[in-house]
């Protein structure tokens, strides 16, 4: 019997989808990873004007049209048992109609909540199954709920260079981070904080970078922290970020502004501290100084790469 043939369509997303790709490959599946973040350059100013026309009139863009051509060229002679599309809002109608013909199991994984990216709903007519990590979207629209996964468990360490570690993009969370760093400074806790930003901001305690950092580099840096800082995009997201599952898989404590984490089965006040950044921050000394309390293996398994792949692709 031929192995199941699987296609993963995704933007780069910091390389997270390389983990299910490698896992499936190692299990003997015929799997292909196709990045839809296809480079595109406007030829001239006229080209940019034409692009505006396509956006206003056709609800598309020259970038999407180019992406559509590349996808059709690359996949024209292919058929798959299952196709997973991550962030399908990046593709136009023609791309989805074409992909739909390439499988009887077209799966959508919504990488953001619908409040943040409502246009995700536009791909619903083309797909067979839908997954989201936002509980409220799953309940409201009858999608399948699934969290993000633990990408790797190979970065455990009890040797710490700093108490806290944060990495993220510049947005409204920046001001929550500054408040947390103020508290850490006042209490003599060490930390490493990094933000992706086009320019340096007004806080020299933070390292700023512009280009994507390889995910393995992030894991190596977080390996040397005792506690991972996880900041919620308030009013936009309540689903748990990859940062949470990286921490769980590598036995790191979590300081988070996402209250929804308290409803999960792995929640333990010894390992996870929820704080409200709009109130006075208090991080108990006992939380920082105590060791990580191991989580039951059956609970951890639910969030592993293996279980995620089995669920998404109906492998068991």
Shape: globular
Give the second-level CATH assignment, the architecture of the largest domain: 3-Layer(aba) Sandwich
What's the CATH topology label of the largest domain?
Rossmann fold
CATH domain class of the largest domain: Alpha Beta
* Number of H- or I-type helical stretches: 11
Spatial strand arrangement across the major sheet:
2-1-3-4-5-6
How much strand content do the residues show? 15-25%
- Overall mean pLDDT stands at 89
Percent range of helical residues: 25-40%
The main β sheet shows up as: 6 strands, parallel
Number of domains: 2
Number of strands: 12
N to C succession of SSEs: EHEHHEHEEHEEHEEHEHEEHHH
Radius of gyration: 21 Å
Q: How would you classify the helix and strand content by structural class?
A: alpha/beta
N- to C-terminal distance:
16 Å
Low-confidence stretches: none
Task: Tell me what the structure shows.
This protein is α/β, with parallel strands linked by helices. It has two domains: 5-146, Rossmann fold, CATH 3.40.50; 162-301, Rossmann fold (3-Layer(aba) Sandwich), CATH 3.40.50.2000. It contains eleven helices and twelve strands. It has a six-stranded parallel β-sheet, with helices on both faces. Helix 3 (62-75) runs parallel beside helix 4.
């Amino acid at each position: 019997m031929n192995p199941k043939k699987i296609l993963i369509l995704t933007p780069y997303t910091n390389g997270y989808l390389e983990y299910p790709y490698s896992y499936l490959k190692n299990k003997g599946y015929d799997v292909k990873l196709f990045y839809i973040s296809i480079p595109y350059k406007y030829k001239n100013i006229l080209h940019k004007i034409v692009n505006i026309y396509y956006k206003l009139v056709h609800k598309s863009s020259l970038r999407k049209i180019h992406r559509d051509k590349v996808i059709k060229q690359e996949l024209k002679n292919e058929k798959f048992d299952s196709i997973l599309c991550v962030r399908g809002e990046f593709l136009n109608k023609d791309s989805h109609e074409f992909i739909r013909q390439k499988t009887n199991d077209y799966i959508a994984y919504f990488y953001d909540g619908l409040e943040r990216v409502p246009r995700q709903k536009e791909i619903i007519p083309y797909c067979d199954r839908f997954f989201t990590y936002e509980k409220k979207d799953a309940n409201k629209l009858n999608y399948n709920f699934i969290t993000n996964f633990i990408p790797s468990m190979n970065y455990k360490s009890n040797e710490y260079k700093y108490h806290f570690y944060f990495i993220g993009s510049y947005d409204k969370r920046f001001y929550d981070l500054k408040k947390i760093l103020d508290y850490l400074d006042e209490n003599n806790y060490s930390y490493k904080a990094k933000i992706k930003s086009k320019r340096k901001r007004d806080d020299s305690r933070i390292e700023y970078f512009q280009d994507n950092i390889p995910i393995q580099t992030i894991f190596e840096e977080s390996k040397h922290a005792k506690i991972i800082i996880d900041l919620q995009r308030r009013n936009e997201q309540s689903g748990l970020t990859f940062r949470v599952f990286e921490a769980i898989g590598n036995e790191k404590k979590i300081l988070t502004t996402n209250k929804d984490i308290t409803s999960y089965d792995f929640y333990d006040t010894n390992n996870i501290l929820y704080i409200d950044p709009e109130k006075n921050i208090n991080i108990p000394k006992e939380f920082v100084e105590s060791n990580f309390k191991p989580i039951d293996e059956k609970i951890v398994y639910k969030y592993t790469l293996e279980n995620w792949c089995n669920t998404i692709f109906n492998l068991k």
